[in-house]
Design goal:
With 466 residues, this protein is of the alpha+beta class. The protein has three domains: 2-160, Beta-Lactamase; 218-301, Orthogonal Bundle (Helix Hairpins), CATH 1.10.287.130; 309-459, Heat Shock Protein 90 (2-Layer Sandwich), CATH 3.30.565.10. It has ten helices and twelve strands. The protein has helices at 2-54, 62-70, 107-113, 154-203, 218-267, 273-305, 316-333, 352-370, 415-420, 427-437; strands at 79-84, 89-92, 118-124, 127-138, 141-152, 312-315, 337-342, 347-350, 375-383, 386-393, 441-446, 452-459. The strands form three sheets. A five-stranded antiparallel beta sheet has the order 2-1-5-4-3, sandwiched between helices. It has a five-stranded mixed beta sheet with strand order 7-9-10-12-11. A hairpin with a 5-residue loop joins strand 11 (441-446) and strand 12. The radius of gyration is 52 Å and the shape is rod-shaped. The two termini are 61 Å apart. 24% of the residues are buried.
Length: 466
């Protein structure tokens, strides 16, 4: 986490450092450029005035230059030089160390003697140093040059004050950004840390752990999605554990019965043939029960893994008629009455085996629980865009607290009665998963006059059935 926090902090600091660098350079450069432009304009104007005052002379001498320059008003210019065409100084305003009579070969004077106007300006040592020069012409002949030098500390002081103020402002901003970056990075990494801790807890099997992340930002939303996912994981894990426990219990019961019966046969001396045949018949029944449980478990495993046969259009009515012919014999054995009716074009997108399994399981369940003298009614119809199958009985019904759980695996309303009826506790789960995999739904309810009704719905698919 410290590495992530450091990265966030450094990213903030680098961005603000770049902004502060720009803040401390761009305004100063712009200000310097403005001063340079102003100096070039004013100093060149002053030089032009001096050149104009000398332009009426045919040649320059110390006397006529001094007389001409006497009427020129000096406005803040630190030094003025006037040279002849050879660069010899004829006039110098500096009182001490005058260069009159000497040769001044400043680059600006050289440029002026070549016929060019020259200007340079620099900012250093807390002052602006400006230099300007222009040639003096007489009848288009260069007879000398005027050179002006200005040393300005006032505008330099203003620029230096601006620079100091920017530095103070930058220091304040830097401190604020440093503190803010630490606070933001800690807040951000703290949330990520909580989320990471929650992930580790869940990875270790603590599915009840939740990530408490305040706020409404993206990380808080991730935390909410994580908690939602953890809820689903916890429910799935609880269902898995219950499924494993129930499956173990269901498998253990017939295995224990088989072991008890075989031990009885082996340990009983002089056992008669009739008793042996009875014990073997019981072993066969328990083996059949094991086989049914195993087949149902395999079928549920295939449904969970999504291994399904490609769906085709299936007409449900022929499948219903086939199941009814089979279940009529079972109902007669149990002294129950089984009737059915169908109407409309009932074509769905599934497989024939799936439809057979759903109808068989629902009908078999109704026949078992309706008991002797029971009445089971099966109806098939089309309601809008749905194909609806209803299986109703006049049995004891389903307790209200158990209606929402009858489709859970191995869940039984009456466990003793279910086992005596030969059920595995998986039939309704297979029905629910099978129908839902094809986009349908299954629900259970109690009938007003007594008994229960199971309703399965598939999306209707028109067209020719296979």
């Amino acid at each position: 986490m410290s590495s992530l926090q450091l990265k966030f902090g450094l990213s903030y600091i680098l961005v603000i450092a770049a902004v502060l660098l720009l803040l401390n350079t761009y305004p100063l450069l712009v200000s310097e450029d403005l001063v340079f432009r102003s100096k070039a304009s004013t100093l060149q104007s002053s030089v032009s005035v001096m050149v104009y005052s000398l332009s009426g002379l045919d040649r320059l001498t110390e006397e006529n230059v001094s007389a001409a320059m006497a009427v020129v008003e000096e406005t803040g210019i630190s030094r003025i030089l006037v040279t002849d065409n050879a660069g010899k100084v004829l006039y110098d305003t500096r009182e001490t160390g005058s260069a009159v009579g000497e040769y001044a070969l400043y680059s600006e004077i050289v440029q002026a003697l070549l016929g060019n106007d020259a200007f340079t300006c620099s900012y250093q040592g807390g002052a602006f140093r400006s230099r300007a020069s222009s040639p003096v012409l007489y009848q288009n002949q260069i007879i000398g040059a005027v050179y002006a030098y200005e040393y300005d500390t006032e505008q330099a002081a203003l620029l230096q004050g601006l620079q100091e103020n920017l530095l103070r402002l930058s220091a304040v901003i830097a401190v604020m950004v440093l503190v803010l970056s630490m606070v933001l990075s800690r807040a951000l990494t703290r949330k990520i840390g909580r989320l990471l801790t929650a992930i580790r807890q869940v990875r270790e099997g603590a599915y009840s752990h939740r990530a408490e992340i305040p706020g409404r930002d993206e990380i808080a939303q991730i935390g909410q999605e994580f908690n939602s996912l953890t809820d689903r994981l916890q429910k799935t894990e609880n269902a898995r554990r219950r499924f494993v426990s129930d499956a173990s219990h269901e498998l253990k019961t017939p295995l224990a019965a088989i072991r008890l019966l075989t031990d009885s046969i082996l340990q009983t001396e002089d056992i008669d043939a009739a008793t042996t045949r009875e014990f073997v018949a019981d072993i066969g029944q328990e083996a059949e029960r094991l086989s049914r449980i195993t087949e149902d478990l395999l079928r549920l495993t295939r449904l969970d893994s999504g291994v399904l046969d490609p769906p085709v259009r299936v007409d449900v009515l022929p499948v219903l008629e086939q199941v009814m012919r089979m279940m009529t014999l079972v109902a007669q054995e149990r002294k129950a009455e089984l009737t059915y009716d169908a109407a409309g074009e009932c074509t769905v997108l599934a497989t024939r085996d799936e439809i057979h399994q759903v109808i068989y399981n629902l009908t078999d369940n109704a026949v078992k629980y309706s008991g002797n003298g029971g009445i089971v009614q099966v109806s098939l119809c089309r309601e809008g865009d749905w194909v609806v199958l209803k299986v109703a009985d006049n049995g004891p019904g389903i307790p209200e607290e158990d209606i929402n759980r009858v489709f859970e695996r191995f869940y039984r309303v009456d466990k003793a009665r279910s086992r005596s009826a030969g059920g595995t506790g998986l039939g309704l789960s297979i029905v629910s998963d099978t129908v839902k995999k094809r986009g349908g739904s299954v629900e259970a309810a109690n009938r007003p006059g007594g008994g229960a009704v199971f309703t399965a719905r598939w999306p209707w698919k028109g067209g020719e059935a296979l």
